[in-house]
Every structure is written in structure tokens, then in C-alpha cells.
TrEMBL record:
UniProt key word Magnesium: no
UniProt xrefs under InterPro entries: Cyt_c-like_dom (IPR009056), Cyt_c-like_dom_sf (IPR036909), Cyt_c_1A/1B (IPR002327)
Molecular-function GO terms, alphabetical: electron transfer activity; heme binding; metal ion binding
PANTHER family linked to this entry: CYTOCHROME C (PTHR11961)
UniProt KW keywords: Electron transport, Heme, Iron, Metal-binding, Transport
Top-level lineage group: Bacteria
Record's protein name: Cytochrome c
Gene3D superfamilies with a match to the protein in the record: Cytochrome c-like domain (1.10.760.10)
Organism field: Sphingobium boeckii
Amino acid sequence: MKSGERTPFARLDRTRSEKTRTMKDRCLNRVDALLCTMAISISALLPLQAGHAQTPPRSAGTIAWAQCSACHALKAGAPNKVGPNLFGIFGKPAGKVINYNYSPAMKAANIVWNDKMLDLWLTRPSAVIKGNKMAFSGISDAKRRKVLIEYIKHSGK
Ligand code: HEC
């Protein structure tokens, strides 16, 4: 009899081994899927960590800056948007960017943009200069504000 194929036992055996194989295959597929997911997550995280290690204020700053970029440019010579171009704003008095139409409140404000003032401003603009027209409620996360201030400080350098 050739490889016992026609005996009921042999058929049973084959069925069993097919079942086992299928389960094993499924397991392997699952492991593959898991490994794939892990590999993808790791590869997604690696560039972030690498970027972080090299230039901490910038990479986190870029992310934080996304909240401002809709209304502000941060490049030398870039046009004003809804808000003034903030290039080089650090250390300057408020309301002095040329060709920008400030609110009367902002024009009259007698403040200089240092760490402390920017931190207060970014916490709650309306609390620093009443009647200003920056439509932004503020950032409650102190760490995020700090990152953002560093980013503005180092812009263009
Ligand atoms: C919805 C638009 C908008 C967003 C978003 C916004 N700003 Fe403004 N910002 C303005 C406007 C408008 C002014 C001018 C306010 C005025 O004249 O009263 C301003 C003014 C400023 C000033 C004062 C500039 C000067 O010349 O004295 C700073 C600093 C500033 N914004 C920083 C930021 C930062 C940092 C962010 C991101 C967290 C941000 N703004 C988000 C619209 C915006």
C-alpha cells in the first residue's frame, strides 16, 4: 500500500497534521503581524528621538510652532499674516513690526518681549494686553510655552 493513503487512519493522520499546520501558520501570521506592528512603531519613533537628541528646542519647537504658524511668519523678510512676522521679536518692544496694523491696545502697550513677558502672553494674551486682537486663548502647559519661547528666540540663527 502506497504511503497508507487509503487507510482511514492515514486519512485521520493527514487531517490532523493539516489542522496542526493551519494553526501553526495562523500563529506565524499573527507573530508576523505583531512584529510588523512593532517594527513600524519603532521606525516611526526613531527619527523623532534622533531629532530630539540633536536639537531639543527646535524639533519640539517646530511642533509647538504649528499652533502659531497659521497667523505668524517667523522668517526674515517674510510678509505679515493675520498677525505680524515674529522674526527677531525676542528682546524687542511690543507693537513695532513695520507695516503691521496693530490694535490700538497693542500699539499703546509698553512692554518688551523677554522670557517672562512672552510666557505671560502665551499663557493668556488677553490678560497681558487687554483689547489686543490676537484670537488665541493661550497655552496652559508651561513646558510647551518654554519650548515655544526658545524656538522663537533661536529662529533665524
Ligand atoms: C488666530 C491668529 C493668531 C494665532 C493663532 C497666534 N497669533 Fe500671535 N498675534 C496675532 C495677532 C492678530 C497679533 C496682533 C495683536 C494686536 O495687534 O492686538 C498677534 C501678536 C502677537 C505677538 C506680539 C507681536 C508684536 O509685534 O509685539 C506675539 C509675541 C505673538 N502674537 C505670538 C504668538 C505665538 C507664539 C503664537 C502661537 C502660540 C501666536 N501668536 C498665535 C494673531 C495670532
